[in-house]
């Protein structure tokens, strides 16, 4: 049964409860099934939700009853908190809205995660079953992470990276939080590509660090502007996504890779390399990580959430010297250690024959869906891909002249399709009107339907 049907049953039951006395028995599950023409699973979901809200109580062998007044006491108002905390914009608001549930009936083309059909769920379940046999998986784990998993990430990074340089963390967002807490102080400037990942901007602003935009194009950050920004800002950290940048999809060109590393050395600065889509290049040969060419100036991070599944919150940070020590200390402060169960499951999956098979199938599917998106977009004049994506799950689309991103995003939602307003990815004023649209988070037919709805929005634009 759909979510809207479940909501309808819940609302009807709440109205019924309001008209009953405390302790009064509710109809049986069978009676409710007949009343609402619903399955026992749906009815039990509704009753469980009501029990969690404190509106009903279930007595084994007796039935379900209206909760007494004490059990269903109204929540006290929290308006006093606004006075105590003060009124201010929180830097995580955009990220929270981005992660919010999609309204019923809307097509979700905003997600940065794989379509559930493409996630490595079966292989991960096999790995979890295998490691659950170990009595140690529920116990303590080394604060740096288990040695074998650190060695795997080090080997993947290449160059002179060793297991001792690797810190296991709880996913990419946690990694960014740890890195910026370790490398920066409040009030300092950090250089970022413009546009850039909104989650990184949220962390910087939460830490009271100032993100300074550096212009980029389809070949990544522009080195001349990067050097000028280092000169003028006094920044000692540059945050970048050299492969399939979020949201633009740009990959740093070979010449610019060399120049960016040279500039970091010249200004004795750190490059924070966010390799969030490692393993998801589906066309062409991906360039190696920057850290493989300069492990002294590059602080590298990657996560498994994009390539495996959203709840596989396991990632790695690679650094050397004092930066490595500070990142380790901050990681311990933030969360002590990452679940040993997740680490062991990740290691089992990554070293199993299922992993390369999963990636091969994933590459084929993502390329197929990318091609569908490009084909459908050819029928929408003015909605132009910024790049031809060669990896990842999304594309960056420029809107027709005169159409504002915020207005278009709201109109798209009214027409039943969710995309991300491009403005949130700019650390300062946007340099154009864009939206980010995912092609890898839904099945092919849903993707076509979503793009068709975007076309309808433009066709009806006044």
Automatic annotation (TrEMBL):
Domain HTH gntR-type, first and last residues per copy: 3-69
**Stretches of the chain forming a coiled coil according to its record:** none
Q: Name the domain of life this protein comes from.
A: Bacteria
Q: Which GO terms describe its molecular function?
A: DNA binding; DNA-binding transcription factor activity; pyridoxal phosphate binding
What UniProt keywords are attached to this protein's entry?
DNA-binding, Pyridoxal phosphate, Transcription, Transcription regulation
Q: Give the record's family classification.
A: In the C-terminal section; belongs to the class-I pyridoxal-phosphate-dependent aminotransferase family.
What's the protein name? Transcriptional regulator
The taxonomic lineage of its organism, from the top, reads: Bacteria, Thermotogati, Deinococcota, Deinococci, Deinococcales
């Amino acid at each position: 049964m759909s979510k809207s049907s479940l909501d309808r049953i819940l609302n009807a039951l709440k109205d019924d409860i309001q008209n009953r006395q405390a302790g009064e028995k509710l109809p049986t599950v069978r009676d409710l099934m007949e009343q609402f023409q619903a399955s026992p699973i749906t009815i039990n979901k509704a009753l469980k939700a009501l029990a969690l809200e404190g509106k009903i109580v279930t007595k084994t062998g007796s039935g379900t009853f209206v909760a007494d007044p004490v059990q269903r006491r109204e929540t006290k108002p929290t308006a006093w908190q606004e006075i105590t905390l003060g009124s201010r914009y929180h830097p995580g608001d955009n990220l929270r809205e981005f992660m919010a549930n999609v309204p019923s009936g809307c097509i979700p083309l905003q997600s940065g995660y794989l379509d559930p059909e493409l996630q490595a769920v079966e292989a991960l379940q096999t790995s979890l079953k295998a490691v659950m046999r170990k009595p140690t998986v529920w116990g303590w784990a080394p604060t740096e992470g288990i040695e074998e998993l650190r060695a795997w990430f080090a080997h993947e990074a290449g160059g002179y990276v060793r297991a001792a340089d690797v810190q296991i963390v709880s996913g990419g967002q946690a990694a960014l939080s740890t890195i910026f807490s370790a490398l920066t102080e409040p009030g300092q400037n950090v250089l970022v590509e413009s546009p850039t990942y909104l989650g990184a901007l949220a962390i910087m602003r939460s830490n009271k660090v100032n993100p300074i935009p550096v212009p980029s194009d389809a070949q990544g950050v522009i080195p001349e502007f990067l050097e000028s920004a280092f000169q003028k800002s006094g920044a000692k950290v540059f945050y970048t996504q050299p492969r399939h940048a979020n949201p633009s999809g740009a990959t740093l060109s070979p010449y610019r890779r060399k120049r960016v590393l040279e500039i970091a050395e010249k200004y004795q600065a750190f490059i924070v390399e966010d390799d969030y889509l490692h393993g998801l290049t589906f066309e062409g040969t991906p360039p190696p990580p920057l850290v493989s060419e300069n492990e002294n100036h590059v602080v590298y991070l990657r996560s498994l959430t994009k390539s495996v599944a959203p709840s596989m919150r396991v990632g790695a940070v690679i650094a050397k010297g004092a930066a490595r020590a500070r990142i380790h200390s901050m990681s311990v402060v933030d969360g002590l250690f990452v679940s040993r169960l997740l680490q062991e499951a990740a290691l089992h999956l990554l070293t199993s024959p299922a992993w390369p098979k999963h990636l091969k199938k994933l590459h084929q599917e993502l390329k197929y869906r990318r091609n569908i998106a490009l084909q459908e977009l050819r029928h929408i004049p003015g909605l132009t891909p910024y790049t031809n994506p060669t990896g990842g799950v999304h594309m960056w689309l420029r809107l027709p002249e005169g159409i504002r991103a915020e207005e278009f995003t709201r109109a798209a939602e009214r027409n039943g399709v969710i995309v991300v307003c491009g403005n949130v990815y700019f650390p300062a004023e946007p340099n154009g009107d864009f939206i980010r649209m995912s092609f890898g988070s839904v099945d092919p037919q849903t993707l076509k339907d979503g793009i068709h709805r975007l076309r309808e929005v433009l066709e009806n634009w006044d």
